[in-house]
């Protein structure tokens, strides 16, 4: 749940304050009812200081004492530690204080609990994993991100993706290059992978919102068989991509409750976006274009310095061009040197 109280929570705290409670105790009562903190008192003081009205440690301690006196929070022993937490009927006590029987349900609705949004769906071979995957694709409104090693374009999957593309949904399909598929799954998969790449491209050649790209990075393709929809729901296929097939994994789904984006959802999107930026189009000439695009500073540097040795009747011609070429080449070296170092290290380890 967000650190700041929303308007409905602030209003409840203000209503309690008008009933004679201190501001800090009113805020803490709402916080405990919606966040359900249970910590040693010293830790609780530091946790609740993020909320408006409880920034002062002294105010937070006084609020805890006031609610303890009221019997709205309690302290109990747990594994040798004394925890301060809400009493089981705190929401009902607040409702009684304010004379509004609808407040318990209101407070319960405010409480953000991520647990229902984290689901272990089961083994990848289970029927429920397949059907819920199709339902998830159908629900997309903005974007679908599909990293796959060498999955064929199954008819039902293609049909749903085409439908969502027609509705304006952006679909990004990231496949592994055949050489990587052959390295992971055996040489017989090289030609099969190439065929499937061609099939994916052909299936969506007439859809502007669908793009297929290829990745040659083992690290990037560790995401294979996972999926993200609308940047709010992510499914992770948990398996060892270097020694297991994706169907041997277990599917776990992470959703985003209203107003929250869990860290694993953000992590997937960041990793996928980085992998996408490093990927290339499977169309002819894409590799050449990517090569020229990445190294244009190097080519320009070489061309400028070479031009410096052409005899031209201009004062300081060579010095000017060499200086210009150095100005282009120096930043390029600074940018590319760390990447080159990592590449060499990785090659030596392998």
Automatic annotation (TrEMBL):
Q: SUPFAM superfamilies, per this entry?
A: Phospholipase D/nuclease
Q: Could you tell me the superkingdom of the organism this chain comes from?
A: Bacteria
Keywords of the record: Membrane, Transmembrane, Transmembrane helix
Bilayer-spanning residue ranges: 295-314, 320-338
In its UniProt entry, what is this protein called? Answer: Replication-relaxation
Q: Which organism is it from?
A: Lentzea pudingi
């Amino acid at each position: 749940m967000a650190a700041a109280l929303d308007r409905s929570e602030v209003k409840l705290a203000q209503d309690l304050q008008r009933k004679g409670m201190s501001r800090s105790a009113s805020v803490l009562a709402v916080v405990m009812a919606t966040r359900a903190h249970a910590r040693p008192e010293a830790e609780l003081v530091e946790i609740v200081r993020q909320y408006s009205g409880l920034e002062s440690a002294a105010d937070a301690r006084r609020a805890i004492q006031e609610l303890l006196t009221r019997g709205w929070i309690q302290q109990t022993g747990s594994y040798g530690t004394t925890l301060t937490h809400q009493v089981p009927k705190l929401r009902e006590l607040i409702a009684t204080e304010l004379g509004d029987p609808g407040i318990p349900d209101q407070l319960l609705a405010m409480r953000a609990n991520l647990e229902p949004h984290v689901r272990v769906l089961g083994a990848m071979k289970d029927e429920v994993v397949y059907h819920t995957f199709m339902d998830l694709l159908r629900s997309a409104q903005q974007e679908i991100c599909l990293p796959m090693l060498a999955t064929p374009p199954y008819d039902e999957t293609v049909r749903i993706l085409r439908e969502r593309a027609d509705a304006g949904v952006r679909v990004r399909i990231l496949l592994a290059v055949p050489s990587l598929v052959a390295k992971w799954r055996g040489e017989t998969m090289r030609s099969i992978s190439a065929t499937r790449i061609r099939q994916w491209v052909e299936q969506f050649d007439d859809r502007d919102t669908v793009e297929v790209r290829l990745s040659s990075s083992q690290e990037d393709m560790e995401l294979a068989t996972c999926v993200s929809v609308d940047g709010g729901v992510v499914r992770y296929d948990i398996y060892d991509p270097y020694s297991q097939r994706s169907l041997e994994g277990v599917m776990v789904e992470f959703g985003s409750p209203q107003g929250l984006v869990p860290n694993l959802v953000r992590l997937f999107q960041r990793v996928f976006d980085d992998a996408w930026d490093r990927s290339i189009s499977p169309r002819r000439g894409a590799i050449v274009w990517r090569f020229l695009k990445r190294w244009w500073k190097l080519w320009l540097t070489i061309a400028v310095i070479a031009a410096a040795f052409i005899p031209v009747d201009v004062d300081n011609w060579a010095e000017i061009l060499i200086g210009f070429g150095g100005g282009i080449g120096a930043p390029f070296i600074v940018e590319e040197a760390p990447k080159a170092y990592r590449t060499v290290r990785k090659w030596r380890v392998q």
